[in-house]
Specification:
The complex is a heterodimer of chains A (189) and B (581). In chain A, 39% of the residues lie in helices and 23% in strands. Chain A is built from eight helices and six strands. Chain A has a six-stranded mixed β-sheet, with helices on both faces. In chain A, helix 1 packs across helix 7, helix 5 crosses helix 6 and helix 6 (144-153) crosses helix 8 (176-187). Chain B is of the alpha/beta class. In chain B, the strands form six sheets. In chain B, strands 3-2-4-5-7-6-12 form a seven-stranded mixed β-sheet, with helices on both faces. In chain B, strands 15-14-16-17-19-18 form a six-stranded parallel β-sheet, with helices on both faces. In chain B, strand 2, helix 2 and strand 3 form a beta-alpha-beta unit. Chain B is globular and about 80 Å long. Classes of the chains: A alpha/beta (189), B alpha/beta (581). At the A-B interface, helix 1, strand 2, helix 2 and helix 3 of A face strand 1, strand 8, helix 11 and strand 21 of B. Strand 2 of chain A pairs antiparallel with strand 8 (168-173) of chain B.
Chain lengths: 189, 581
């Protein structure tokens, strides 16, 4: 099979590292060669962060380059916009319809763009969900990323059971149930 | 079949250390090297390891362990090697007893560093051999090779990584720990006491050793040749090898696992078998300049940059002249890193900003005080430099001038190299105010313990250095301790201390907000009463946004309940809606 390229983009502190651990565990369970690349350090302090996941028969470079992503999972609208040009022509963009103002916007030095999703929908296949609100309904606004992953799962090569198994192994034991429920919300959307 | 596991480069190095039979490791945290030591903790039955106050100490501890006769290592980031440069240059003359490897992590692209220096240059200057892996599997396996060569050739080694290697995951096969017998310690003054007559002798010896190693490099298994299409040949190493395989899958490749010293015969032979030779290395032209000095025609930095990270697309453009069909990125406002919601540094910087003070800054999360809207930090250079920079300014412009300045330094950075600068101030009749922003951890690198936290790297309780007593012992008379969120007291203290004509230390205490895992309080704006004055927005808390009607809103998923905004609202419009637990 051709190497599959996934990106997770968001704001430092939103849980991109947990998500990448889940995807990593999943790809090994599927028997693929896999490489992941993450961001640690300064950018994790509220900066723009990106994780690359590549899996296939044999993977060389650990990063996804412009125009190569099959799936981009965006935890925030502006970050979806920032990385959309990494998508392949038929790539899929899954977006948490949520806004976090970057500091230039907070202090009035820049404007948060209007109509991000409407504009992206003109060019790409976009699936959007207000996962932060949906996860609040489940009782924990922090499990929003599993809702977004649930949607992404519909566009990847793994069974629901494989996802469940990896979620159980990866998230803190006390939060397994709520994370699985969050995943279900996305998976059935 | 051995078990295959997905591992971060840094995790693979820790596993490699375990498998190589390492017994002692010492390190100071520094992105992107930090996780090596954190992953190594799981092997604490077999490997002793510790956080040292700085990289010089870490390197010297490793040297001591090696001389005693066990395999030893130290880990640091590239700029940490500068701090460890003193022992580095001299242990190069001394050689080793048990194998000795310093892991040094470079940061092409400057993800989390103050410069983009290339460790291979330092290694060449210190005549230290360098091994460089290109993925997690090699990170683990080459690490053992480094120890074997270190002992075989009596040389300390540097194991060079980069951010991309350190923070990428790949599959590795686990093996058992090698049984390595401790070597007996042998007193050898000529080899281990670097006074001039011995150092002259040792310099001659290590020149010989390095030549032997350079000769052996021609047949080392970690230097590999893949002859495919001979129209293009590439010499490369490390992560750039992966970009070469992606962009030029058909090209012939010489991949160097050891990048210092270079295998001259192997390179000459490879060059003679290909029509056009490229050298692909991130940062400085270290391989390229040597290869060209031997009269070999090659192309490198003429078409490839000395800055930042490479990629396959970059090589497609530079070497193949192909223009990949990609869209231009959208216009999007930047999202630079910022102080977290609830960060105690924000409160301190708010006070300094209000008092219109300048700050000589240092390395850590609090460097972010240079960012708008607070923009308090004037300088950031290297670990520990804030205090000595302040001192130099006072000596240049006098005691009145320095009343408009403070130095800001974190607790971990103060213990790293700030203590000696404070000692210098007291000794040399300085005036000036040093603020230790004590958040009880090494913050930016992800919360590592240090000598004042009361806990060791391996999780044991430890003596916690008392910063107040330490400052008193250095001769500082004026030491005050203030809660970082008590802005009224902080303002009063800063005003009083900066007015003095002697050295003052203010310790602003409050633990890093990310350390505290308890349920946080939550504040909310009474929107109907909000006067839209914007006073609460001044410190630049990312949890607060001004809505289109000008009314302020607090994001309940981000607020940690620090209460700074409520303190700043003169109209009492920000209320506590949920207490912490």
């Amino acid at each position: 099979m051709e190497t599959k390229n996934i990106m997770i983009v968001g704001v430092g502190g939103q849980g991109t590292l947990l998500t990448s651990r889940i995807l990593g565990g999943l790809t090994i369970a599927g028997g693929y060669d896999v490489k992941l690349s993450e961001v640690h350090g300064m950018a994790q302090r509220g900066g723009s962060v990106v994780t690359f996941v590549r899996y296939g028969e044999k993977v060389a470079e650990p990063i996804v380059e412009e125009g190569q992503a099959d799936v981009i999972i965006a935890f925030e609208r502006l970050e979806a916009l920032r990385y959309a040009h990494f998508l392949k022509k038929d790539g899929v963009l899954i977006v948490n319809d949520w806004r976090i103002d970057p500091m230039p916007v907070v202090i009035g030095a820049a404007e948060y763009p209007d109509h991000i999703l409407e504009d992206l929908e003109k060019e790409h296949k976009v699936y959007k969900v207000n996962a932060t609100e949906e996860s609040r309904k489940l009782g924990n606004p922090r499990v929003f990323n599993l809702i977004v992953l649930g949607i992404a799962a519909q566009h990847m090569d793994f069974t629901k059971e494989q996802w469940y198994e990896v979620i159980e192994k990866t998230v803190p034991p006390k939060t397994i149930e709520i994370n699985k429920r969050a995943f279900d919300v996305g998976y059935t959307l | 079949m051995a078990e295959k596991v997905l591992m971060l480069g840094n995790e693979a190095i820790a596993r490699g250390a375990y498998e190589a039979g390492v017994k002692v490791s010492s390190a100071y945290p520094g992105t992107p090297s930090t996780e090596i030591s954190e992953f190594l903790v799981q092997y604490k039955e077999d490997v002793y390891e510790e956080w040292a106050p700085n990289e010089k100490v870490a390197a010297e501890v490793a040297v001591g362990a090696s001389l005693a006769g066990v395999r030893a290592m130290a880990c640091m980031k590239h700029v940490g090697l500068n701090v460890a440069a003193d022992p580095l240059y001299s242990v190069s003359y001394m050689g080793v007893n048990g194998g000795l490897v310093l892991v040094v992590a470079d940061d092409p692209g400057l993800y989390s560093s103050q410069n983009e220096q290339d460790t291979r240059m330092v290694a060449r200057a210190a005549q230290i051999p360098v091994i460089e892996p290109s993925d997690s599997a090699e990170a683990k396996d080459f690490f053992r090779t480094a120890f074997e060569l270190s002992e075989q050739f009596d040389r300390p080694f540097i194991f060079r990584t980069t951010t991309r290697l350190a923070h990428s995951q790949g599959l590795v096969e686990l093996r058992d720990r090698t049984k390595v017998e401790d070597r007996p310690y042998e007193k050898n003054i000529r080899k281990h006491v670097m006074m001039p007559v011995n150092a002259q002798y040792r310099h001659r010896e290590i020149e010989k050793r390095n030549q032997e190693l350079a000769e052996a490099a021609n047949t080392l298994a970690i230097n590999t040749v893949e002859i495919l299409d001979t129209r293009i040949g590439v010499i490369t190493s490390g992560i750039p090898y992966q970009y070469v395989k992606e962009a030029l899958p058909g090209a012939s490749v010489l991949k160097l696992g050891m990048v210092n010293p270079l295998p001259r015969k192997l390179i000459e032979d490879f060059a003679s078998r290909v029509e056009k030779l490229y050298i692909v290395e991130e940062l400085d032209p270290v391989i390229e300049e040597q290869v060209k000095s031997w009269g070999i025609q090659a192309v490198g930095k003429e078409i490839l940059t000395v800055q930042g990270e490479y990629s396959a697309n970059m090589l497609r453009r530079a070497i193949l002249g192909e223009e990949p069909d990609v869209q231009a990125p959208a216009q999007a406002p930047g999202r630079p890193p910022i102080l977290c919601p609830g960060c105690p540094h924000r409160s301190v910087y708010h006070v300094l900003h209000k008092l219109k003070l300048h700050a000589a800054g240092d390395i850590g999360c609090y460097t972010l005080g240079a960012v708008a809207p607070l923009s308090v930090v004037d300088t950031t250079m290297c670990m520990g430099s804030s205090i000595s920079t302040l001192h130099g300014m006072e000596k240049a412009k006098g005691t009145d001038y320095i009343k408009n300045w403070v130095a800001v330094i974190g607790d971990s950075t103060f213990l790293h190299t700030g203590v000696n600068s404070l000692m210098n101030m007291v000794y040399n009749h300085a005036a000036g105010t040093v603020m230790i922003l004590d958040n009880s951890t090494t913050g930016m690198t992800g919360h590592q313990d240090h000598a004042a936290t009361g806990k060791t790297l391996q999780g044991d309780p430890a003596c916690a250095i008392d910063l107040v007593q330490l400052c008193h012992a250095l001769g500082v008379k004026n030491v005050s301790v203030v809660n970082a969120f008590d802005i009224a007291l902080l303002e009063k203290t800063v005003k009083e201390e900066t007015a003095r004509e002697e050295v003052s230390v203010i310790i602003a205490q409050s633990p890093c907000v990310l350390l505290d895992k308890s349920k946080k309080p939550l504040y909310k704006v009474r929107e109907a009463q909000c006067k839209k004055c914007g006073a609460c927005m001044k410190p630049g808390c990312p949890a607060m946004t001004k809505q289109e009607n000008g009314v302020i809103r607090i994001d309940d998923t981000m607020c940690t309940g620090c209460g700074l905004c409520a303190d700043l609202c003169k109209f009492g419009c920000i209320e506590l809606v949920k207490a912490g637990e």
